[in-house]
Amino acid sequence: MTQQKKLGGTFSFPGTPFQVFRVGYGAMQLSGPGIFGPPKDRTEAVRVLHAAMEAGVNHIDTSDFYGPYVTNQIVREALYPYPAGLVIVTKLGGRRDEKGGWLAAHSGQELIEGAESNLRNLRLDVLDIVNLRAWGIHGPDPDFDVRPSMDVLADLQRRGIIRHIGVSNVTREQLVAAQKIAPVVCVQNYYNIANRADDRLIDDLAQQGIPYVPFFPLGGFTPLQSDTLSGVARRLGFTPMQVALAWLLARAPNILLIPGTSSLAHFRENLASATIRLDGDALVELATIGAHA
User: Fold this and answer.
1) Domain architecture of the chain: domains with CATH
2) Alpha-carbon distances of 275 from 127, 235, 236, rounded to whole Å
3) Is the pLDDT at 39 greater than 70, yes or no?
């Protein structure tokens, strides 16, 4: 099997030289419990990153507010100097308090300091792609004005600190507002087989050639639970989580996956999801899970 098939084929970030395999890696879980502090097994975390590179993964999603700082430092420890063709996507717009709480960080100074911190901890001279993480706890906050933060990121882009800009946790209206300030090369929102509020947005982005990167593709901190999903998985001989990832790859050609784990065995399971071919009956059955989302 070719590497392209093993990793779900490829997709490009528009207006960039970056073409990535559709199965990437989300580094969030390399930090400790609650995405706070160091991991229980730093050596295993490094092994997972090495395994990702050996498998051909060339898209890593990370942020300095994972840990905080820990995840980026582990990425640097494991992979610097970075392999040619590796695209590291980070994000700004959040920070952590001393107890691990998640706080918004959208002032100009916070965004600038966040960019500098990502550069320092990843040991980069420029950030390939930076997602502006619009705040909102259980989804986008429709009242959040993305324009001031986008103005700051656009200025960082002009200064050569950021190459390209994406957005995360946004509504359609916030995306359009962001696009009026600078080109948006990717959208990262909450989406999975059971939570499909962004169905129309995904299709619109596909027409624009913009990748959609679902976070919490397996349900978030509480894994997906579905008798239908489990039944299809048993019939196909895979785990429910593998089938859930395969469904995302089948859902639209512009979906890029960044499943995260700190376990080498779990990483290999996630990677194998790209080899699953869902037949028509399976797709029809699985579509019922999110039919009323």
Assistant:
1) 19-188 (3.20.20.100)
2) 31, 16, 12
3) yes
